[in-house]
């Protein structure tokens, strides 16, 4: 009898977990729930919610529990989770060694693989080329060396004091330039050293996202530097190997079925930067980046919208509520979902993207994607509170998760309170969130959705691009969206933007850019570097792979 009672009790508890919970929707009740959700998601125990980490999995479990409380059913069959594989950092492989004049040195003690090294080896005499400069401010380190082709070129890691500031370039670009010059001159390997007594040795991190070369590139300690410099032509045998980790992020999604023919998708990413890394605006510090505004605030908004809409009289549509992984890795989670067969995107009427709802400090709210349907402008004007300063932007493409749905011809609207000093820094903490402002944004979104209840299906309109957060500050663009998940050589184009230089020249979605003028394009970093060398008004030769063909287009910038 006791066993039966236990089974019945467990069954009751299981039902309670999945059952819809009652919620109060007064302003204070909503604010308190937003505070609880954001403080939890941005807590130190979740360690910044970097995609593919334990911290992100804890956040996914929390979001799933809140969706269950709201009464949502799992979207992915019996699961609320959709696994999203993506490439991670490079790690040192097994084949890393440095032998100088027959003596082998210890990896990660005497020398380090550079993040731009190739998986390659070299066995050749060495030549010291000092700062590795040619024709820069009267400096020519190669002038008296003869040919360096077929040799291991030894270069100073740093530039001469004051040179970078004088030239207006950063240290990363200065280093990349000297490495590229040595490779163009035929170097088969590169050893970087630091002979400047007033400069400390650099901290080498494989987390740096830089172009990979085809030859081995290492940094060696000062003791090795002295040996190489003292013996011109000394034989160096070197090898480097980096291996790419694969990670798995998790999209979390629930479904509310109103037996309607169309569906509304409400989403926002829940991943952040973890302990910082290359995306941090404090890149030298390994500190938890809590991401309260970016994007615990939007995630809490998705959860709260689920609570409200499940209990509302808005029944014209079904609803998908989804928290995306790996937005900070390049919008990977949203694109994976949109491209999957998890749900028929043809049923989607529109998509709302909540990303950074937490800093409505002057009632200034950006709405991006207003040109993706002719209806948005009028609907927004009718629904917006009078005290809101609405900043409209028509473009459907941009640096957040609505992009994947725009590319499926779905009208989108991206709610965004703007960049601030704490963006992508450890200071993006829950105490700085404007909770009343977030609550008011959600109320505005509900009013907007209520107006749409009286409309026919929203017609999709293609637009030009707007990228509020990641737009190039200066210089030219080709007008395209890169495929951040592409791992082979070149830059694969996810989307070509209408009426922009690439589209006008005949470049298409799916093309892989392999060369711009004389510069080889290996991935997005070398692409961005090539763009930096271009000038508006001129014409650039852009070579792409389209299937098995190589095609060259003259692109007017």
Summarize the structure.
This protein is an alpha/beta fold and 557 residues long. Helices cover 27% and strands 25% of the residues.
List the helices and strands and how they pair.
Layout: H1 2-18, H2 27-41, H3 54-70, E1 73-74, E2 81-92, E3 97-100, E4 103-105, E5 111-113, E6 120-128, E7 134-136, E8 139-140, E9 152-156, H4 163-167, H5 171-184, E10 189-193, E11 217-220, H6 222-230, E12 235-240, E13 242-256, E14 263-269, H7 292-310, E15 318-324, H8 332-339, E16 348-354, E17 364-368, H9 376-383, E18 389-393, H10 402-406, E19 412-416, H11 435-452, E20 480-482, E21 491-496, H12 501-505, E22 512-516, E23 519-520, H13 524-532, E24 539-546, E25 549-556
Parallel strand pairs: 6-9, 9-10, 10-11, 14-15, 14-16, 16-19, 17-18
Antiparallel strand pairs: 1-13, 2-13, 3-4, 3-12, 5-11, 6-12, 7-8, 13-15, 17-19, 20-21, 21-22, 22-23, 22-24, 24-25
Helix pairs in contact: 2-7, 2-11, 3-7, 7-11, 9-11
Notable characteristics:
alpha/beta; disordered N terminus; elongated; 9-stranded mixed sheet; Aminopeptidase; Pdz3 Domain; 557 residues; Glucose Oxidase, domain 1; 25% strand; 8-stranded mixed sheet
Radius of gyration: 27 Å
Which structural class do you get from the secondary structure elements? alpha/beta
Mean pLDDT: 90
Q: What is the CATH-assigned architecture of the largest domain?
A: 3-Layer(aba) Sandwich
Question: What name does the CATH topology of the largest domain carry?
Answer: Aminopeptidase
Query: Segments where pLDDT lies below 50 for 5+ residues?
Result: 1-17, 466-474
Report the major sheet: 9 strands, mixed
Tally of alpha and pi helices: 13
CATH superfamily membership of the largest domain: Zn peptidases
Helix content: 25-40%
Query: What distance separates the N and C termini?
Result: 81 Å
Residue share in β-strands: 25-35%
Shape summary: elongated
Highest CATH level, the class of the largest domain: Alpha Beta
Count of all domains: 3
Query: Number of DSSP strands?
Result: 25
